[in-house]
Write a structure and sequence with these properties.
By secondary structure, the protein is α+β, with helices and mostly antiparallel strands. Helices cover about 40% and strands about 10% of the residues. The chain has helices at about 10-20, 60-65, 70-80, 105-110, 110-120, 155-190, 215-225, 230-244; strands spanning about 25-30, 35-40, 100-105, 130-135, 195-200. The strands form two sheets. It has a three-stranded antiparallel sheet. Strands 4-5 form a two-stranded parallel sheet. A hairpin with a 5-residue loop joins strand 1 and strand 2. Helix 5 runs parallel beside helix 6. It is globular.
Length: about 240
């Protein structure tokens, strides 16, 4: 579907979502000043209470009520890759706090937090008794990079940064697995069965650039064809067939 020029997430696409004409969209970013997860989307997610404090609505709709932004702008803010793309902030907006927005991967690299909140709210009063959650990521974590040799002072200079990069991926995957497990238990208590299918790119060199080369496109096509024979694909097919 081609959207008319100037259609925003809220004043345009939100109406289409409520009418059932297109799926909901949620873009994640991270507030530089507070470290909070910042969402931009066509649905209004519940505010989170963290550390015993009062729930804070740190969504675009909550902070900049009455304003709008284009989907392409939300995608740009969500994918503010460190150092490659500068962090963003609203321009000429009269608010008490004009936050800077960084890459959503700092807080929720895989989008599971938003997905679980959305499903929890959407299925709270829905008559549906089944739901399907599809996860797509860039591949499994790398194996242990061990060495038998002793490392000296030079290793100590970049070890803290290396640890930070490694633990972000590992910790978020562990948190994701826990969030999905808790979501299954919550929905089960409501009589809703959740089917989870997870697709990971088969290889250590997943293409993540905005502009893909022909070789990268060919590898993606091959990975897609290989995934058709995997158990996860059969889960999705079975789920869809049983809906009919």
């Amino acid at each position: 579907m081609t959207e008319p020029e100037g259609v925003g997430l809220f004043q345009g696409l939100e109406l289409r979502v409520r009418a059932g004409l297109r799926p909901a969209q949620i873009f994640n970013a991270t507030l530089v000043e507070t470290g909070d997860r910042f969402t931009m989307g066509t649905v209004d997610l519940p505010a989170l209470a963290i550390g015993g404090r009062e729930p804070r609505d740190v969504s675009f709709y909550g902070l900049y009520r009455g304003l709008d932004l284009a989907p392409v702008t939300a995608a740009r803010v969500s994918a503010t890759f460190p150092y490659v793309t500068p962090v963003s902030r609203p321009e000429n907006v009269q608010v008490e706090s004009s936050y800077h927005m960084a890459d959503g991967g700092y807080y929720d690299n895989f989008g599971i937090v938003s997905a679980t909140l959305f499903l929890t709210e959407a299925l709270r009063t829905s008559p549906r008794k089944r739901a399907l959650l599809i996860q797509i990521d860039d591949g499994l974590p790398t194996e242990d990079d061990r060495t038998s040799s002793q490392r000296g002072w030079f290793f100590q200079t970049f070890a803290p940064l290396n640890t930070l990069l490694k633990v972000r991926d590992r910790s978020q995957r562990a948190r994701n697995d826990l969030d999905v497990k808790l979501l299954e238990e919550i929905l089960h208590a409501r009589g809703v069965a959740l089917t989870v299918a997870r697709f990971s790119y088969p290889g250590p060199d997943a293409p993540l650039s905005w502009h893909l080369t022909q070789d990268e496109k060919s590898k993606l096509d091959l990975a897609w064809k290989q995934s058709l024979a995997k158990p996860e694909t059969k889960k999705v097919i079975t789920f869809l067939q049983e809906l009919n």
